[in-house]
C-alpha cells in the first residue's frame, strides 16, 4: 500500500464513521531536547511501548557511557525508532526520562482535543505498521530507515475526544486481560522447562536437584547412587578444537570440498550437512581435525547461549575454533555417546559458570577444562533406559510448550486485531462485549478443534 493509498483508506474510514482526519504534523512536532544525564533511561519495546530500561531483564542493549546526547522524553511524547517503526517500535510515552539519540521524539501540539492513549493505540495498529513499512527504505535486513517527511504527512483518524477516550479505556481493559493470559502462558513455559531440567538431573544423578550447591563439579553432581562414579571426560573421549582458514586465501575454500562447521550448529539437535566447505589443501596445511560421525560437538566461546550447548555429529567434518569435539576412544567404552549427550545437557549451567570470564569478558571453555570435567557414569546397561526416559520427558515438554506458544501467538494476533478494529471504528466499544480473555479462550478452543 502506497502512502497515497493509505491516506485514501484512512479518509474512507473517517467518512464512514463520521470522524475527521489530521496529518500527524498537526498533532505532533519533532523535538530534540537533551537531558542532563541524571534521568532514568528509557527503552522502546515492540510489545510494551516505552518503558524504563531497567524494568526488564531481557534488554541487552548497552547504553552509552556518555549520556550527554541522550534525548529528553516527557509523558505524552511520541517516540519512534526510525529503523524499526514498521516492526512496532512506535509508542506514546507514559514515562519521563532520556532515550537514545538515534530515535525520533515528537511533542504533542493538540492536548485539548487529543487523548494520548488513543493516539498510542492508533499509531501502534496494524494498519499504521503497514504504512510505516511503505515509507521506510534501506538495504539492511529488518532495518529500514523511516522517511520523516512522509511520516509527518501520515493521516491520523480523529474521532471526537469523548470517543477517543472511550476507545482508549476499552482497549486498556481488554488488552490488559489478554496480556494477563499471555503472561500466564509464559510462566507456564518457564515452569515446564524447569520441570524438564529437574527431571533430567534426577535421571543423570539419581537424586533431586539442589540449586544451592557450589560451582565445583563434584558438588554440582552431589552424592551418586551405589555403583555409579564420577569420571573425567578425557579418560574416554578424544577432545580438541579446530580453526578457521583465512578467508582471503581462495584455495583454502572449495564448495565441493570437505564440510567445515561453525558454532551455530549447536542450535540444532544434530548436524547432517554443512553450509561451507574447505579444500584438502586447508585440511593438510592447517592440520584441521577430521571429526568422525558419532562424535559430539560443543560450543566453547562467547557470552551467547551457544557456549556449553551440545549437538550430535552425523557426518564427517572439520570445525572452527569456537567448537570442540568429543570423540569416543572406544565403541566399548563405559559411557555411551547418547548418555554423554544427556549428561552434558544437564551440565549446561555448570559449564557456563565454570567458563564465565575465562578468556576476557567473553567467557570460554577450553579443551583442558573439558578434559578435566567429570560426569556421573551409571552402569552401561542402565544408560540406554535413562536416555529413553529423558527423550520421553523432552517430547512431553516440547508438546506442552508448543501448545502454550500456539496460545500466545493466537492471543497476540487477537490483541493486534482488536486494537486495529477499535481505532478504525470497526467495533462498537460502547456495547458490553464478552471479555477479551473469555473470547480469546473460545477462539483458541475453536482453532485447536479445527486443527484436530
Tell me what the structure shows.
With 452 residues, this protein is α+β, with helices and mostly antiparallel strands. The protein folds into three domains: 3-159, DNA methylase specificity domains (Adenine-n6-DNA-methyltransferase TaqI, Chain A, domain 2, Alpha-Beta Complex); 175-228 and 378-452; 229-363, DNA methylase specificity domains (Adenine-n6-DNA-methyltransferase TaqI, Chain A, domain 2, Alpha-Beta Complex), CATH 3.90.220. It has twelve helices and 22 strands. The protein has helices spanning 3-17, 116-123, 126-134, 148-152, 161-205, 217-221, 280-285, 337-346, 348-355, 367-372, 380-423, 436-451, and strands spanning 20-23, 28-31, 42-45, 49-52, 71-73, 78-80, 90-92, 97-99, 104-108, 136-137, 145-146, 155-158, 229-232, 237-241, 253-261, 270-271, 276-278, 296-299, 310-313, 318-319, 323-328, 374-377. It has a five-stranded mixed beta sheet. It has a four-stranded antiparallel beta sheet with strand order 2-9-6-7. Strands 17-15-20 form a three-stranded mixed beta sheet. Strand 10 and strand 11 (145-146) form a beta hairpin. Helix 2 crosses helix 5 (161-205) and helix 5 runs antiparallel to helix 11 (380-423). It is elongated, with a radius of gyration of 28 Å. The methyltransferase is composed of M and S polypeptides. Belongs to the type-I restriction system S methylase family. Keywords: DNA-binding, Restriction system.
